[in-house]
Design brief:
By secondary structure, the protein is an alpha+beta fold. Helices cover about 55% and strands about 10% of the residues. It folds into two domains: about 90 residues, Alpha-Beta Complex (DNA Primase, Chain A), CATH 3.90.580; about 90 residues, no CATH class. Helix 1 runs parallel beside helix 4 and helix 6 packs antiparallel against helix 9.
């Protein structure tokens, strides 16, 4: 199981949506943790929901807003309310609701590196073309999993990776493959830096 999935599942299991909604000031009866309730949602239109359009479902720890046309769990709500990335929201929820950070073995860290760690490893010039492509793939996977970039930018980087892979599969020059993989990684680093301001 990926780190992101494990973190999201733990929040879903341990942090009641009713509590989080009440903490954000939604008119929810916290004594009714096991019953469905209707409430006003401020996440659509002008934020003024005069006819309560959202319904919380404690059984699956989510709510659905009929005006927004979508469900949200604790993680999605915090990400949207606070304008946070996936991992920033996880850390905020862990801190706010007293969850100790999940511990990971060295194997987990290697399998799911942060974009910065993946990029640092990826710029090793002694690696083979296959290693460069593998590291590029892992870096892009970590960016995709953490939602570090918007989908259009991620798709563009994945397309560049796929073109290098095809060139390599067709017997392209090894040093060119490695150099192209490093150029895409440099481009990804620049895009990520610009996104974070």
């Amino acid at each position: 199981m990926s780190r992101s999935r494990a973190a999201a599942d733990r929040i879903q299991e341990l942090v009641p949506i009713i509590t989080v909604l009440a903490d954000y000031g939604y008119e929810i009866d916290t004594r009714g943790e096991d019953r469905e309730q209707q409430f006003s949602c401020d996440l659509h239109g002008d934020g003024n929901d005069t006819k309560p359009s959202a319904r919380v479902y404690p059984g699956n720890n989510q709510f659905f807003c009929f005006a927004c046309g979508r469900s949200r769990d604790v993680l999605a709500l915090v990400m949207e309310k606070e304008s946070l990335s996936f991992w920033d929201a996880v850390r905020l929820i862990e801190h706010r609701y007293g969850l100790p950070p999940l511990l990971w073995s060295d194997d987990d860290e290697e399998s799911f590196p942060t974009p910065a760690k993946a990029l640092e490893k990826a710029l090793d010039t002694s690696e083979t073309p296959d290693q460069a492509l593998e590291r590029l793939s892992r870096f892009l996977q970590s960016m995709t999993t953490e939602r570090s970039l918007g989908p259009v930018k991620c798709a563009g980087l994945w397309e560049a990776r796929d073109r290098i892979f095809v060139f390599h599969s067709d017997g392209g020059d090894a040093s060119m493959v490695r150099d192209m993989a490093h150029k895409v990684l440099d481009a990804a680093k620049e895009v990520l830096r610009n996104e974070r301001g």
